[in-house]
TrEMBL record:
The chain crosses the membrane at residues 61-81, 93-112, 118-142, 154-173, 179-200, 216-237, 243-262. It is found in: Cell membrane. Keywords: Cell membrane, Membrane, Transmembrane, Transmembrane helix. The keyword Transmembrane applies. The keyword GTP-binding does not apply. InterPro entries: EGF, NGX6/PGAP6/MYMK. Its main location: membrane. It is a multi-pass membrane protein. The lineage of its organism: Eukaryota, Metazoa, Chordata, Craniata, Vertebrata. Belongs to the TMEM8 family. The gene is Tmem8b. GO terms for cellular component: plasma membrane. Signal peptide: none annotated. This is TMM8B protein.
C-alpha cells in the first residue's frame, strides 16, 4: 500500500578531490608524475623491494639488515680514498688531495641519503649531495690525469686547465647527470692532453717517457687496468639489482687506481743558478763618506781606500 509523501527537503554536500598516488606511496615509494600528449599520469615508484599500487606489498621487500648492509657498503667503501689523499699530500699534490677529500666526503653522504628504504641519513638536500658527488668523481679523474701529464714545465699557467675542467664538468652535469659520456668524455679529453704532453717530452728527450720500466710495470699498467675494470663495471655490469655491491666495488677500484697512477713528486730542477760574483776583482774606488750629492771640493776630495784582489 502506497501513501503519498509530503515534500521533504534535504541538503547534500559533495566534496571531491584527486590524489595522484595512494597514501603518497608510503615510506617505501615515491609518487612520480608523467605528462605526455596533454595527458598527466601518476604512479608510485616503489623501493627496497616493495610493490603494489601504494607500495604496500612486502612479499619481496628487503629486510632491515639488508638495507643497513647496502648503506654501509656504499658509504664505507669511500674510505679507500684515504691512501690516495696521503700519497697526494706526501707528493705535494695539495690540489689533488683537496679534490679527493671533497669526493670522499660527498660520496659518503650522498649514498647515505640515496638509500631506498628506511636507513637514510641526509645532511643536505638530495639534489645538492648528488651534484657534488658526481662533480667530485669527475674532477678526481680530471685532476689525476692532468697531474700525470706534468704540464708545468711545458705549458705556463697549466693550472688554468683545472679551472677549465671544473667549469665544463659543472655545465655537463647540469645538462645530464646520468649520461655515460659525462664520465668518458672528460676522461678521454684529459687522456688526449696527457698523450700530447708525453709525446712532446719523448721527442724532446729522444727517450720514452716515463723513462723507467719500473714506473710502467708496477704503477702505470696496474693502475690503467684497475681503472679500465672500474669503467667496464660501471658501464656494462651495474644494474638496479646489484647496485649496492657493484657500485661499492667501483669506489674501491677508482680510488685504488688513483693511488697507482698519481705520479711521484717532481724532482727539483738541476739547472745551475748564476755563479756568485767574486769580491775584490781588480781595484775598487770607495766613495768618501764626507761626499754629499756629489758636491765636493776637488781640492779636498780623497780616496778612502783602495781594495785589491
Amino acid at each position: 500500500r502506497f501513501e503519498p509523501c509530503t515534500n521533504v527537503t534535504a541538503e547534500v554536500y559533495l566534496r571531491a578531490y584527486l590524489s595522484p598516488c595512494i597514501n603518497d606511496c608510503g615510506i617505501y615509494g615515491q609518487c612520480k608524475l608523467l605528462r605526455t600528449n596533454n595527458y598527466l599520469y601518476a604512479a608510485c615508484e616503489c623501493k627496497a623491494g616493495w610493490n603494489g599500487w601504494g607500495c604496500t606489498d612486502n612479499a619481496e621487500a628487503f629486510s632491515y639488515g639488508f638495507q643497513l648492509l647496502s648503506t654501509l657498503l656504499l658509504c664505507l667503501s669511500n674510505v679507500m680514498f684515504v691512501p690516495p689523499v696521503a700519497i697526494a699530500v706526501r707528493s705535494h699534490y695539495l690540489l689533488e688531495a683537496a679534490v679527493y677529500i671533497f669526493t670522499m666526503f660527498f660520496s659518503t653522504f650522498y649514498h647515505a641519503c640515496d638509500q631506498p628504504g628506511i636507513v637514510v641519513f641526509c645532511i643536505m638536500e638530495y639534489d645538492v649531495l648528488q651534484f657534488c658527488d658526481f662533480l667530485g668523481s669527475l674532477m678526481s679523474v680530471w685532476v689525476t690525469v692532468i697531474a700525470m701529464a706534468r704540464l708545468q714545465p711545458i705549458v705556463k699557467q697549466a693550472s688554468v686547465l683545472y679551472l677549465l675542467g671544473a667549469m665544463l664538468l659543472s655545465m655537463a652535469l647540469q645538462m645530464d647527470r646520468h649520461g655515460l659520456w659525462n664520465l668518458l668524455g672528460p676522461s678521454l679529453f684529459a687522456l688526449g692532453i696527457m698523450a700530447v704532453a708525453w709525446t712532446a717530452r719523448t721527442i724532446r728527450r729522444r727517450h720514452c717517457y716515463p723513462p723507467t720500466w719500473k714506473r710502467w710495470a708496477f704503477y702505470l699498467c696496474p693502475g690503467a687496468l684497475i681503472a679500465a675494470a672500474a669503467v667496464l663495471l660501471y658501464a656494462f655490469v651495474e644494474t638496479e639489482e646489484n647496485y649496492f655491491y657493484i657500485h661499492s666495488i667501483w669506489h674501491l677500484l677508482i680510488a685504488g687506481s688513483v693511488g697507482f697512477l698519481l705520479p711521484p713528486r717532481a724532482k727539483p730542477s738541476r739547472r745551475l743558478g748564476p755563479l756568485p760574483r767574486r769580491k775584490g776583482c781588480g781595484y775598487q774606488l770607495c766613495v768618501n763618506e764626507q761626499e754629499e750629492l756629489g758636491l765636493v771640493d776637488p781640492a779636498v776630495a780623497s780616496i778612502n781606500s783602495i781594495c785589491t784582489s
